[in-house]
Amino acid sequence: MLAKVSKNIFLYASQNKALNTVAKKWGLKFGASQVVAGVNIESAINQVQRLNEKGLLCTLDHLGEFVSSREDALEATVCNTRTLEAIAKAGVNSNLSVKMTQLGLDIDRDFCVQNMHRILDTAKYHNNFVRIDMEDYSHCQITLDILKELRETYTNVGTVIQAYLFRAEQDVKELKGIPLRLVKGAYKESSKVAYQEKEKVDENYMRIIEEHLLSGSYTAIATHDHHIISKVKDFVQKNEINRDQFEFQMLYGFRTEMQVSLVQEGYKTRVYIPFGDDWFGYFMRRLAERPQNISFALRGFFLKN
Questions:
Q1: Where's the Proline dehydrogenase domain (predicted)?
Q2: Among 69, 168, 260, 294, which residue's beta carbon has the most beta carbons within 10 A?
C-alpha cells in the first residue's frame, strides 16, 4: 500500500510544472546525476564514448516535455539536431530519442511535424535513427498518427509501445515492420485504458514482444526485469530468431553489470541516456517505477553532498 502511495506521489510530481521549474535551479541534485548524463551535449557524448568502449550501443534523449511556447519548441528542435551532429562528429554509436510534446505537439500539430522533419532530415543526412518516445495516454493516438505520416517519407523513425495499455497488442499488430521499442509503461493511467496489476502488465508485455518478433520486425526490448530477459532469450532460441532482429535496452545508471553481461553473451544492448537541465519529470518517473530506486537516489544524494 505504501509503495502504491509513493508511486502516485512521484507520478504527480513528474507532471508538476512548478516543481520542474524549481528543479532546474537545483541542478542535478538528489541522486539525479546517477541517472542523467549531465546538462549538456558534451557530457552526454562523453558517456556514450565510455559505454561504446564496453560494447554497448546508446540512444541520447535531450530531456524536456509538455512545452507550451513555440520558442521553447524551436530551441528543443535545434538541440536535437545539434545532438545528431555531435554524434556524427564524435563518431560514436548512438541513436536519438525525442518527445513530441517537447517539439510543440500541444501547441500545434503541424508545427510539431515540421520540427520532426527538421530532425529526421538531419538524422537521414548522418545515417542515423530517431525514436519517438511514447508519452501519456492522451498523446498515444496522435503520436501513432504522426508516425505513420512520417514513415511515408522516412524509414529512419520508429516509436514506443507501452504494455500496460489495453490497446498495445493491436497497435503492435498494426505497426508490423516498423522498429519498435517495447516497454511496460511509466505514466499513471486510468484503469479504463491500462492494466493496473503487475502480473497482467508482464503477461501483455511478453505477448507484444512475441508478436513483434514473430512478425519479423525489429524489436527493442526495454526492461531491467531479468525474468523477462530470460523468457526472451528462451523464446528467440526456440523460434530461431536471429539476434540481429532485436536488442535489449536499459536506462543509464541502472543494472550496469547486467548491461555488460548481455554484451558478453553476444546480445545487442543499448543504453538510453538522458541529458539536459529539464530532468525533473524523467527522474520522478524513475523513482515511481520501483521503490528500490528511492533508496538508490538517496544514496546518490548523500554521497555527492
A1: 45-296
A2: 168
